Every structure is written in structure tokens, then in C-alpha cells.
Amino acid sequence: MEQNSEYRAQLLQEYKQTVVPLLKYIPWFEKNAGQSGSTLYQGADARENIMSFPVYDSTLMSFVKEAAKSPLMDRNYSYVYTRNRIRSHEDERRIIQEAELKDWDILRGILSKYVLGGRTKAILWSEAAKENIFFLVLKQMQKIIEFWDKPLDIR
Asked: What residues does 41 pair with on adjacent strands?
């Protein structure tokens, strides 16, 4: 039994090291809940035949870059979605809310879909911000760590 608690303590330490640097973005996601985090730029003279492109909030881009470099990224995130039958934002929110320590890889998969998937389909970054997916995943990860360890001092 002691071996089990040592293993859990080691896991929590690893999880804490990977998540804590990203938790500083929680206030921004909370403040901008329901907003896309991007605007469309159409140029100085907005004519009909000019292509517009998204311009992302600098905080959102910082989060995406930092998260992409973290060990939280799972390149096989699509398997998390098929294995857990996740098909909609409602499914994601429900699974995130119910996640426990044993479901850490599911949270990683959901986060990875939006961070890594956004590299080829940039609308995913805005979608995750607007649907509060980034916020909910980070908050649940923090909640899991604090449940099994001690409250985190994030500033």
C-alpha cells in the first residue's frame, strides 16, 4: 500500500511540474470566457475581394506556444476522442468536469486536440477559448492536484 502512495506522490509531482507554468493563464481565460480570442484582419481598405485572416490575442498565443512545448501534449489525441466517444463540446465539458487523477490522459488529449490541432486548423484555438475548453481543462487539472496534494500558490 505504501508503494502505491509513493507512486501517486511521484505522479502528482510530475503533473504539478508540467501544469503549474500554464496555470498563470487561468485568470485570462476566466476573464475572456465566451470570447474567441481573435479578430479578423482585412487590411486598411476593406474591399470585398481581399482575403481576411485571424489575428490572435497575444496571451492566447503565449499559452498555445507554452502548452505546445509542455509534456502535456499527446500526439495521439484522436484516440482519446474515439475511445471515450467524445463528439461535441458538451461531451468534452462533461468528461472534463468528471475527470479524476486516473483520467489525466483524457485531459491531456482534449488539451492537445486544440493546441496541436490548431497548428493546421487555427480556428481550433479560438474555438477552445470561446467554448472555455482551455479554462476548464486547466482548472480541472489544478483541482485534481490540489485534491491529492495541497493547494497551489499561483500568482
From this structure: 53
CA distance 53 to 42: 7
In tens, the pLDDT along 15-24 reads: 999 999 999 9
What separation, in Å, do the N-terminal and C-terminal C-alpha atoms of the chain show? Answer: 35
The answer for residues whose C-beta is within 8 angstroms of residue 145's C-beta and 6 or more apart is 12, 15, 16, 19, 152
Q: Scan for cell 496534494, then name that residue.
A: 149
Beta-bridge partners for 55: 39
Where does residue 74 rank: exposed (0-12), middle (13-18), buried (19+ CB within 10 A)? buried
Cell of 131: 467554448
Of the candidates 47, 45, 56, the one whose C-alpha atom is nearest the C-alpha of residue 130 is 56
What is this structure's pTM?
A: 0.88
Q: Report how far residue 114's alpha carbon sits from residue 64's, in angstroms, rounded to the nearest whole number.
A: 9
